[in-house]
Design goal:
By secondary structure, the chain is mainly alpha-helical. It is 71% helix and 0% strand. Its main location: membrane.
C-alpha cells in the first residue's frame, strides 16, 4: 500500500475500534454479576487482558496484511490448513448461541416500546418466547438469503444511535444526583470497601462475561496497514481505545450505582435494566418515556441488523475460501443469488435446536435470556483462543515473518504474553459454564443449565470434526 493511502490517524483507529468493540449492555451485564466491585474488575481486565489483546491483533494484522480470512488466515500462515479450518469453524459456530438470543432481544425491545414496561419478560413462559423467537429467526434467515441492501443502512444508523445512547446514558446518570437531586440507590458508594471484589469461586465464574465484553478486537486488524506510521500510531490508537472503554465501563458502572442498588440487584436487570434505567432518567429529567422509547427503537434496529448480518457474514467467512478437504462441496453450493443455501440450512437447524430445547427445562423468559447470554459469554471467547494461538506461533517463527508493527520485540516475551492471554481466556470459558443462580433455589434448573453449558460447546466443536470426514468420503466417492 502506498504511503499516501495510509490516511488513518491514531484517533481514527481508536474511534473505529470503539464502536465495533463496546456497547452499553456490557455495563448492565457485568454490574448485574458483580455490583460495584465490577469497577475494580474493569481496571484489572483492561490492564492485564484488553491492552495486550488489542496490540497482539495489531501485530498479526500488520504481519499478514494481505490475508483476507482474518483469524483463520493467521492460523493458516503460522501452522496448517487443518488448524486454519478449525479456526474458521470456531469463528462461525460460536455465532449460533448469539443468533439464538437475538430474537429474544427484539421481542424485549418491542415489548418495552409498545407496552412501556418489562412485564413481558417476567410473565411470559420460556416456551412461548422460544416459539415466537423461532418464527422471527426463520423470517430473518429468509431475509438474509435475499441479500436486501436496506439492512446495511439500518445497521449503520442503529450502530450510531446505540453509540450515542450509550454515551447519553452515562452523562445523564452521572449528572442526575447533582442536577436533579435524584437519590443515589447504592449505599456506601464513598467507601473503598464497596469496590473491592471477593476473589472467591463465585467471582471467577463471572469473568467470562468481562472477557466477552472486551473481545472482538480482531475485527479492526484490516486498519493496521491503513494507519499513517502504523508502528507508532496504531498502538497509540489501541491505548486510546483501552482508555475510552475503561472510562465508559467505570463511569457506566458508577452510573449504575446511582440508579440501581448494587447490593440488592434486581433479578431482571440484564433483560430489563437498560430500559428501566432510561425510564428512570426520563423521570428525573421530566421528559417521561422519551429516553426509553429512543433506546427501544435504537436497540430494536440494532438487534434486527445484527441478526441478519450474523446469519450471513460468519458463514461467508467459513465457506468463502473453503477447502474441499475439510468442507463438503455441497455445503458451499450457491443458488442463483449467490446464497449458500445448504450453509443456511445448517445454520437454521442448529439455531432452531438451541432456541427450542432449553425452553423445556428453563421456566421463564428472564432465566432463558440470562442463560443464553451466559452461554454466549462461554462460547464466543473460544474464537479469541485462535488469535493468541497464532500470535504464539508467530513469535516462535519470528525470523520467517516481517511486520511493520511489533507489540513486543523480544519473541520469548511475546510468546509468554500470548500464552497468558490464551490460558486466561480458556480459564474464563471453563469457569463460565457454572450457572449464575443459586443451586438451593432450583436444583433441577441449576443442573439443567449446567448440563447445557457443558454439552453445547462440546457439540458445536464436535460438529466441526465431522465435516472433514464427510468431505473426505465425498471426494473418495467422486473419484
Amino acid at each position: 500500500m502506498l504511503e499516501s493511502e495510509k490516511t488513518l490517524r491514531w484517533y481514527n483507529v481508536a474511534l473505529i475500534a470503539f464502536v465495533s468493540v463496546w456497547g452499553l449492555a456490557n455495563v448492565f451485564n457485568n454490574f448485574a454479576n458483580q455490583g460495584l466491585t465490577v469497577i475494580t474488575s474493569w481496571i484489572l481486565i483492561m490492564i492485564f487482558y484488553f491492552v495486550p489483546y488489542s496490540l497482539i491483533v495489531g501485530q498479526l494484522g500488520s504481519t499478514f496484511k494481505d490475508a483476507s480470512g482474518g483469524v483463520s488466515s493467521w492460523v493458516k500462515e503460522t501452522s496448517t490448513k487443518r488448524l486454519a479450518y478449525y479456526a474458521a469453524w470456531t469463528y462461525w459456530v460460536v455465532h449460533i448461541p448469539y443468533l439464538a438470543q437475538k430474537p429474544q432481544g427484539i421481542l424485549i425491545a418491542f415489548s418495552w416500546l409498545f407496552k412501556g414496561n418489562g412485564n413481558f419478560v417476567n410473565e411470559t413462559s420460556a416456551m412461548t418466547v422460544s416459539i415466537m423467537g423461532l418464527v422471527i429467526f426463520v423470517f430473518f434467515l429468509w431475509i438474509a438469503s435475499k441479500g436486501i441492501a436496506t439492512l446495511s443502512r439500518i445497521g449503520s444508523i442503529a450502530g450510531t444511535a446505540m453509540f450515542v445512547m450509550s454515551l447519553l446514558f452515562i452523562l445523564l446518570a452521572v449528572s442526575a444526583p447533582f442536577m436533579t437531586h435524584a437519590k443515589i440507590q447504592t449505599p456506601d458508594m464513598g467507601a473503598i470497601k464497596s469496590y473491592l471484589p471477593n476473589f472467591n469461586f463465585a467471582y471467577f465464574t463471572t469473568i467470562s462475561m468481562l472477557v466477552f465484553a472486551v473481545g472482538g478486537a480482531e475485527k479492526i486488524s484490516p486498519y493496521v496497514n491503513k494507519t499513517k506510521n502504523s508502528a507508532k500510531e496504531f498502538p497509540k490508537g489501541m491505548l486510546a481505545l483501552a482508555a475510552m472503554v475503561a472510562i465508559c465501563a467505570i463511569l457506566g458502572s458508577f452510573a449504575m450505582g446511582f440508579l440501581f442498588n448494587g447490593k440488592d440487584i434486581p433479578s431482571d436487570l440484564i433483560t430489563n435494566g437498560p430500559y428501566e434505567g432510561f425510564l428512570r432518567l426520563g423521570s428525573f429529567y421530566h421528559v417521561g418515556n422519551l429516553f426509553m422509547i429512543l433506546y427501544a427503537i435504537a436497540n430494536a434496529m440494532a438487534q434486527i441488523s445484527a441478526l441478519a448480518f450474523s446469519i450471513d457474514a460468519p458463514l461467508k467467512i467459513l465457506l468463502g475460501d473453503a477447502d474441499d478437504n475439510f468442507i463438503p462441496k455441497k455445503l458451499s453450493k450457491l443458488n442463483k443469488k449467490g446464497t449458500p443455501v445448504n450453509g443456511y440450512a445448517m445454520t437454521g437447524i442448529l439455531v432452531s435446536v438451541l432456541i427450542i430445547i432449553p425452553a423445556i427445562g428453563i421456566g421463564n423468559m428472564n432465566e432463558l435470556y440470562k442463560w443464553l447470554l451466559n452461554l454466549n459469554a462461554v462460547v464466543m471467547p473460544m474464537r479469541y483462543l485462535w488469535v493468541f494461538f497464532a500470535y504464539m506461533l508467530l513469535n516462535k517463527q519470528y525470523k520467517k515473518f516481517k511486520s511493520g508493527y511489533k507489540f513486543v520485540k523480544n519473541p520469548v516475551v511475546g510468546y509468554i504474553i500470548g500464552a497468558w492471554c490464551l490460558l486466561f481466556t480458556a480459564f474464563a470459558c471453563i469457569l463460565g459454564v457454572v450457572p449464575k443462580l443459586n443451586y438451593s433455589d432450583s436444583p433441577s434448573n441449576y443442573m439443567f443449565q449446567l448440563a447445557l453449558n457443558i454439552i453445547t460447546p462440546i457439540v458445536l466443536v464436535a460438529l466441526g470434526l465431522i465435516l472433514p470426514a464427510i468431505a473426505r468420503r465425498n471426494k473418495k466417492d467422486a473419484a
